[in-house]
Amino acid sequence: MDAFMGSVEIQRLNAHGDQEPETFNAQRSTFNAQRSTPNAQRSTGRLMEDESAHPVAALFSASPGARARTSLDAMNRVALITGGSRGIGRGIALALARVGHDLVINYARNAEAAQKTAADCVALAGASGHSIRARPCPGDIADSAARQSLIDFTRTQCGRLDLLVNNAGVAPEVRADLLESGEASFDRVLGINVKGPLFLTQLAARWMIEQARSDAEARGPDAPASAPPRIVFISSISAYTASVNRGEYCVAKAALSMLTPLFAARLAEHGINVYEIRPGIIATDMTAPVRAKYDALIADGLTPIRRWGSPEDVGRAVAAIAEGAFPFSTGEVLNVDGGFHLRRL
Ligand SMILES: NC(=O)c1ccc[n+]([C@@H]2O[C@H](COP(=O)([O-])OP(=O)(O)OC[C@H]3O[C@@H](n4cnc5c(N)ncnc54)[C@H](OP(=O)(O)O)[C@@H]3O)[C@@H](O)[C@H]2O)c1
Question: pTM for this structure?
């Protein structure tokens, strides 16, 4: 099956948003030049009628290294977004679709939302001149077997991983005072918001290291290096702001913030940059129950930029990272918070 089928891909998902058994580009990592399709052609989502006129035909007289390089360069980069079905994760998926990434859209339960996001991503990419694949994949990131399945799914379906966005996260089910909150909520919030991203990143990083090696071998010693893989953590202003009625969430986000320097320090030698995005008050399902409270606080000047943030605001920041806007920065924090973090007098 052709590697670049655009919106057709989404029609092959079953009712639960799972992929059908057919692979959609497991051969990518073999750099098969015959399968590569130049950008202009990919943007139409169609194969040229006269294959002999195909610019890729010139490759068959080129060296194996040149063929591999061209094939590698012609491939869409692949992003895995946890919690990509709704809210901020959806905003990130759309922003990455706009710049031509293939997407694995993880979610916990809401298959319908995940499928809609995938379809919207394919459509938006098409309108932006790209042909992408977007694959929903269910899985609770707090669960070890589910994390492994998510990586396996990405490997089988996309053949590579260029960007991991650790976005999935939950608030406590009940906002309980610090003197009353219980261990069950602590375990749930820490499991999803910290343990999940930590061990998913461990799996992804091992694969990215192996992939960077095989990319370099395929390109050959004299070729310019391919764009390196990257990792993003979506933390929160709660990493440093005390909210005494959801302490476990603040503890979790503070811990998540430490994952950025840890992985940045560990992975720099492999050319993998790691970033943290710290959103402020963003309009999503998570904040819907406290909408009125934050409307009033924002109107009162809580944030220098007096508006709610949007998932698109966060998506734009992730897309900048994905596009390689910060090659000499790692372990960096981007505040996407309307200036909430500024100390003011
Ligand atoms: N909204 C804000 O103001 C704000 C501010 C700062 C930071 N953040 C952080 O940004 C991230 C996204 O927040 P949001 O506001 O977009 O939340 P949201 O609207 O509630 O969406 C949460 C997303 O995470 C998924 N998810 C939940 N539990 C999961 C699990 N165990 N495994 C895999 N996926 C799971 C959900 O999947 P389903 O659709 O299947 O449920 C959904 O896609 C979170 O880490 C949050 O802490 C949010």
Answer: 0.85
